[in-house]
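[Solved] Which block belongs to which protein?

Original post:
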Amino acid sequence: MNDHNSVPGTSSDRRRPAPPQPVDSKRALGGRRRGPDFARRLASVRALTGYTADDEALVRATREILLPHARAIADALYQHLISHPETAVYFTLPDGGPDRPHLDARVHSLTSWLQAIIEGPLDERATAYAATIGLAHAQRGASPVRRVKGRYMVATMSFVMAALTALLDDAIDERDVLIATIAAWCKLLAIHLDLFLTVYGTAAANPHWY
């Protein structure tokens, strides 16, 4: 199973970004839901994906494997996105040059999110944080044309899962543990994707949000 593409830039960036700020739960879920619904939403999606306490333990056990590579995964993802004209527009200035400050901020944000899901529990705070990220992407930009489409979040999760799989494959020798760990991460990323997209339809106010 060692034929996965490697993640470029594997040097460790051990600086920790500031922790996520407290979120307005009502705003994060499109203004229609209140805080307690975070618990119900999380319970529902955990049950649907089958994400168990054992899965969470497997994810936590990958901390030392994955944390040193969080920044490299983020860098590789955004290099991938700017290589495609369809997504490069979100990181390009009107004159056609790269919007470097915006790109650096997005890399920093994705690194923070990766570190948070590797280290932190999947609880109501994590759920609110994920919803806030979804809201930020749905509302980004001065016009609907600049809003990040929901399907780009799907593509992002696919890229991240592929990168994590390659790193786990390199680090875990026991096949049964490797398969169980990859499955646990698939479930966790599916949960976060569900939470990201929860707010998209309402926040974007656009039938073409996906």
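(Second protein starts here: sequence line, then its structure tokens.)
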Amino acid sequence: MNNTKHSLETTPSLSYQQVIDQCNQNPSMPEVKGISQKAVEAMIARQGRFSMEVDDVAEDLDLSVEELKYQLKQEGEAFRQLRTQVRHSLAVLHLIEGISIDDIACRLGFSARNTFTDAFKRWTGLPPNQFRKYYAS
């Protein structure tokens, strides 16, 4: 991925609409609507408290895993890719908000800080601490 600066708002709290707006402003994130939007909303509601796994999100939406995956496929989405995009947007927003890297890793369902750091480097080309310093200046 590139190291270009994204235009992101600094906010005291993160709302569903802010994440959707950020997803839609980020060229790597497709506009979400339909079942994709519902899945994103479920993932955001789950962050920090519950798993963002496909079976849990499907249950929140009163769908079987197969039905959720089928409906997402009909919209040109895949659950895993959608979850990655949500995690990426949430990670960026949480870093800008000043939340600790350990807390972000936990909120987004990563098994450890280093797992989150590796994923974040794949998404942005920078480790989270460097990203925060770069965007804070």
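Accepted answer:
You had them paired correctly. Confirming on the second one: DSSP finds eight helices and no strands in the chain.
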